[in-house]
Amino acid sequence: xxxxxxxxxxxxxxxxxxxxxxxxxxxxxxxxxxxxxxxxxxxxxxxxxxxxxxxxxxxxxxxxxxxxxxxxxxxxxxxxxxxxxxxxxxxxxxxxxxxxxxxxxxxxxxxxxxxxxxxxxxxxxxxxxxxxxxxxxxxxxxxxxxxxxxxxxxxxxxxxxxxxxxxxxxxxxxxxxxxxxxxxxxxxxxxxxxxxxxxxxxxxxxxxxxxxxxxxxxxxxxxxxxxxxxxxxxxxxxxxxxxxxxxxxxxxxxxxxxxxxxxxxxxxxxxxxxxxxxxxxxxxxxxxxxxxxxxxxxxxxxxxxxxxxxxxxxxxxxxxxxxxxxxxxxxxxxxxxxxxxxxxxxxxxxxxxxxxxxxxxxxxx
Length: 365
Known about the structure:
Layout: H1 19-25, E1 42-48, E2 53-58, E3 73-79, H2 83-92, H3 97-104, E4 111-115, E5 118-129, E6 134-145, E7 148-153, H4 162-168, H5 174-177, H6 180-215, H7 219-251, H8 259-325, H9 340-361
Parallel strand pairs: 3-7
Antiparallel strand pairs: 1-2, 1-3, 4-5, 5-6, 6-7
């Protein structure tokens, strides 16, 4: 899996670079995507009915061929993407070349399409990097056909489908009783549910940043606000299109989706709507944090200006008195008085002290 470049917290200035911004916004569908071939792939096949389950790890994509039209429900999960393997398995299962192109693409917008005898869903699985406080994206392709589901993942090291594998091993589970469309629903539901985990982790970062800004604001706080806002852009770009994806499945008239399964997709739709609204709430929070930061900066500046103004006012009497007695006149009261110096210094101290008492009395500090 090719990881998106992340902001490095090496120094304050590095937090304001534009590399992450370019990585987020540099999407050009007219360019031919360049995908790095996976060095290793892992293929797992789950072939099951209500009473039996065959779970195997396959060595090549050709080993998947017997799972088509075998009167069982088959789930083939391929971790790691190679062009030859994708083309081979898609050709055997009768999947259109446009779908193959979408599987091999990079940075695609989440979508669903009905091409030929299959339904194709493309969306992104999200993970939160705790060390970098960044959102990582893994593209997932799910193909629903008659009695089979084929899924393609970029990263063979992690996914959110382990719970689904455990459920398939339970003979009485609903997954074993229903068809391939319910299996497809479960995969989409797990991906969407994992969005909330990522948003919760990002929300903790936002809360920590809010407490930090309230306690003390500095340039690094502004840099962290900028970094988190970019991660919210990643969330928004990957979550909101899934709403249209699920809506398209609900409205689909494909024979691959049974009427009794539609209600489950409606439940996923409710979840993705809630996730979209939560992203918008986080976005508003970040705007409020930026306003809070600016307010704290202005407050600190006002405090500094207040101190400087008070100091200036307190020094003004001494300046005036010193200027009066420093004028070049022959006849100045107390100029030649034996205690004239002490009287002048006393006035320089007593007048500022009286002014300071007045400031305190008026609540100016």
